Amino acid sequence: MSKDNKGKRFSRRTVLMGAGAAGAAGLAGCIGGDDSNDGGNNSDGDGTGNQSGDGSGGSSGDMQPIQLLHAWSSGDGNAAIGALIEGFQEAHPDVEFGEEPVNGAARGNLDQVISNRLQSNDPPSTFQTWPGKTLQKFGDAYESIEEDVWTDDLTNNYLEGPKTQAQLDGTFVTVPLNIHRINNLFYNVSVVEEAGVDPTSLSSPADVVSACQQISDNTDAVPFAQQTSGTWSTTQLWETVLLAQAGIDGYESFINGEGDKAQVQSALENVVELSEFYPGDSSSIDFTEANTMVMEGDAAFIHQGDWAAGAYRGKDGFNYGEQWNQVTYPGTSGSYLLNMDSFPYFANNPSPEATKTFLSYCGTAEAQVLFNAEKGSIPPRGDADVSQLDTFQQDQYDDFNNADNQPPSIQHGLAVVPAIKTNIDAAFSGFLENYDAATTAQELVDSFK
Amino acid sequence: MRNPIALLRRRWSDSDDVRTDGGTVDSGQSFWNRDSVRSAPFWLPPFLLVGLFVYGAILWNIVLSLTDFQGLGSPDYSNLDFENYLAALADPIDGLLSVLPFVNGGAVEARSPSWAQLSVEPIWNSAWNTVVLMVGFTVVCLALGLALAILVDHKIRYENTFRTIYLLPMSLSFVVTAKFWLYMYNVETGLINVVITSLGFGAVEIVQNPDLKLPAVAFALVWQFSGYAMIVYLAGLRAIPTSHFEAARIDGASTLRMYRRVVLPQLRTATVSALVVLTVFALKAFDFLFSMYSGYQPGPSADILATRMVREAYANQNWAYGSTIAVVLFVMALFIVTPYIYSQYQRGEL
Amino acid sequence: MSQPTATDDQTGTETGLLAGYTLRRITLYVVLLVMAVFYLVPIETGLMTSFTDPDSYTGQAPFLPPLEPLIPGSGTFSAQPWTNAFDILGQGLVNSLILVVPATVLSGLLGSMAAYGLTNVDWRGQVGIYMLFVAGIFIPYQAVLVPLTQFWYNVVPLRTTFVPVAEVLPFIHAYHWKLVALIVTHVAYGLPICTLLFRAHYKKLSDEMLEAARLDGASISRIYRRIVLPLSIPMFAVVFIYQFTQIWNDLLFALTIVQFGDAAVVTQDLVGLGVSQSGTNFPLRMAGALVAALPTLVVYVFFGDKFARGVAA
């Protein structure tokens, strides 16, 4: 859960300090002594290699240390990467590891760093990125790992959807680590019961609107918690509704640039209807505050990726199946709308052998369970032993394995290349100003031109 | 030139005196004896720094804007052309018409430079927003600063405390102020709407309201930086000789009239010096928008050139096009600089 | 410095109307106080939020003190966000100090020298040079990001020359080269405005004094050291405070040049503080923001006065 990141920040320095044997608790302890620890950290950084590849001369053994850049600098993401690295170092104590959390969780920030390093022909070993079409962003900089990493074990055990997303123009270049599902509808059980709504009976986006009306009529709660200061929540809501209304075929035509304007517009109109049931101050709050409304019983529904459940996990007396629950977003049953993170392999790699060892490890079911237990998402492999994950994750994992299809998310970078995504974001930034479905639909269809 | 120092300077520059440190006893205007050279240790190192980093970088950026650079490897400088500018300024007339108020020109046709798979939007909308934001922010900031300065200039108690308080927001980072203003503009609980509703009006959506977005951003910046304008104006007010006020009073001028006729004209220098610094702050509005709208998509009615530039360069990897937008931004900055420098030059204040 | 001011003269014309006078004074103070509240509320709101237990934070009335049982809906009190913020931002604060002190002092000093060389020593062409300085003030930073990255990472061998040196010297670490690059950049971009501020001041210096010194045979540099520099102290206060704030709060250059890692400055650490996919920890964010703002707040509270006086000088 996010709110207990009590100064527990992994960094390259502290990881190196522990040299493989360090556990999460020990690492947290290293950071404990506020200002005074700077000296210690500095001397560590000094001894073990300098960032940006200039320390290549100093490392021991025949393997160069891995330079892993990621933006999980706090919260559950930080705990998850910590668990993954710990597991990796137990399995491969001979591989040196230089993990570098990029300060600032903003993903754009990390991409900027990568961009700068690629411009100076100094790529890291690997970094945290969305797979799928986002790979096009640094396309030429990646190298195939079809031979060394994507062995039969991986190709046989990843489901088709995630496997497609691991490829750049048909070649495997990255290893997906986790899946967050986008087509969820979370709800506060007592609020929907008070209103007499049964979420499991809803079967289309239009039903969600009627349910919201019923909640609005029968309770004081906000029917649909949503934030509108940034575009991302609205984009992912719209893509979910589009998937529900247009089906997998309609959704795929859109992401292939052959979208039907009428379908796009109809999904937007549904979002406009839903927006009547947003909190009055949706434009001033962010996702956390919207999610808190559900937890406090001030709101009934929230549409979000399953990271929303991460906040529920950490709240006492707010349990899955009792105080909160989740249904597949009405109309999208049979689909598991994917949002993934992955580690790609850069050409001109500063640590070819070590990186491939690490990526192979990330492709194992054990590694993915370690990571996802902390992250709140599910493993992309179909054969993982998920008994260590919580009940909600296990239910999601069942849904995933039984899904007819695993379409890629637009908002989360899998379905369209970054330039098109920027256009789509721009269309939604306008949509949030005027809620004009017809104009936005045209802009969305034109995003591919 | 009314400045008496000019006279001294002229004599100094003609001087062929023996200096204690000069070493040269040459009576002519030898190269080493010129004042430009003698004073070079003072101005040359800073000038080289500025020249290299500021102007060198600008020139480099202009060259980049002529390439097709898309972020990977090194830019290819062998094939330079202006197609990025053609795309950015597509249809100057339609473009201008589309943004000017009360004209309601149609949409502008986007073009596709040869390197791009997708068409790229021209920059008219964000350029217009940039102008509106800069002008609106500076004018309101100066007005509020002046009003505050006049109030503080009343021999009040605790003047230092008030002055410091008014200046404090300037010390805060945008991470704090953006979150705070999101809260201030909240439709239900935000103070702005609490005031509006208590006056008997209906609550107003501000943050995502296309008509109020840009003013709201400008207002937040005014709040943050008007303290600086106040300080500068206060200094300006105090520099006006008392005799001017007395003369006006004897003439029987009203307070308002006195301020308009006597005070304002004498605040020209203060206004100009405040304006310079405020412009620098206005150019940093990007950081605020970025924090407020959690990313570089503030929406069409608040999109400025800076958000546009970063979006193209970092999100789309269209580095050359990003550089093009940066050059446009720089040219717009020149439109501020040139009249400023010219008027200063005319008045002999440069 | 406090001469009789406009409205005092004006109120003088209303002698006898003591009631009116007091009423005006009261109105004046009320307006001033309202404005003070207007400027202070955000800082107060941030402060209250930063002392709230993250689990009890609702965002409904963030300006109320977090005293849950006493004030419903305000959240429970906790100092945890502050200690966490100090832990997380510790190294960033140190790096920021390493950056801001030399960068501020250097840009102030070089700005003063440039202004002197271009103002109090007269020579043909100086206006042209000065114009370039002034125009440099208005350069939007976005316009130079790409070249700056290329310059520090691909053109100048600063990193490779710095690393061996760093290994020999005590207290210097290899990653400090990024801070050196950042210092140089900030000095270069701060110079134009520093020069402008100093030049405005130097134009007002007494001619007689400088002429007298010159007639005594003092050299250009001696006049600077003995006369101009001591007289610039109020202006140094202004320039230092201005530059300190600008450099301390800068994020764009830091992102471009430091990028990430050991040399990251405090504003970089602040960006992602308390943000994760499952939610934002607002108390931690606000505590972090205030921790990061402490140095500038201290500077303004204690030296704001000198700033105001320097601007007036």
From TrEMBL, chain A:
InterPro entries: SBP, TAT_signal
Compositionally biased residues, Gly residues: 46-60
Region (Disordered), start-end ranges: 27-64
Natural source organism: Halomarina rubra
Protein's name in the database: ABC transporter substrate-binding protein
TrEMBL record, chain B:
Cell location: Cell membrane
Membrane topology: Multi-pass membrane protein
Keyword Cell membrane in record: yes
One Pfam family named in its UniProt record: BPD_transp_1
Main location: membrane
Signal peptide as annotated in the record: none
Annotated Gene3D superfamilies: MetI-like (1.10.3720.10)
The UniProt record lists the keyword Cell cycle: no
Keywords assigned: Cell membrane, Membrane, Transmembrane, Transmembrane helix, Transport
Protein family per UniProt: Belongs to the binding-protein-dependent transport system permease family.
UniProt name for this protein: Carbohydrate ABC transporter permease
Organism whose genome encodes this protein: Halomarina rubra
Automatic annotation (TrEMBL), chain C:
UniProt superkingdom: Archaea
Domain ABC transmembrane type-1: 93-303
Keyword Nucleotide-binding part of the UniProt annotation: no
Family annotation (InterPro entries): MetI-like (IPR000515), MetI-like_sf (IPR035906)
Compartments in which it is found: Cell membrane; Membrane
GO CC field: plasma membrane
Keywords of this entry: Membrane, Transmembrane, Transmembrane helix, Transport
Membrane-spanning parts: 26-43, 97-118, 130-153, 179-202, 223-245, 282-303
Predominant cellular place of this UniProt entry's protein: membrane
Membrane topology: Multi-pass membrane protein
Family as reported in the entry's similarity comment: Belongs to the binding-protein-dependent transport system permease family.
PANTHER family: ABC TRANSPORTER PERMEASE PROTEIN (PTHR43879), GLUCOSE IMPORT SYSTEM PERMEASE PROTEIN GLCU (PTHR43879:SF1)
Name of this chain's protein: Carbohydrate ABC transporter permease
Organism: Halomarina rubra
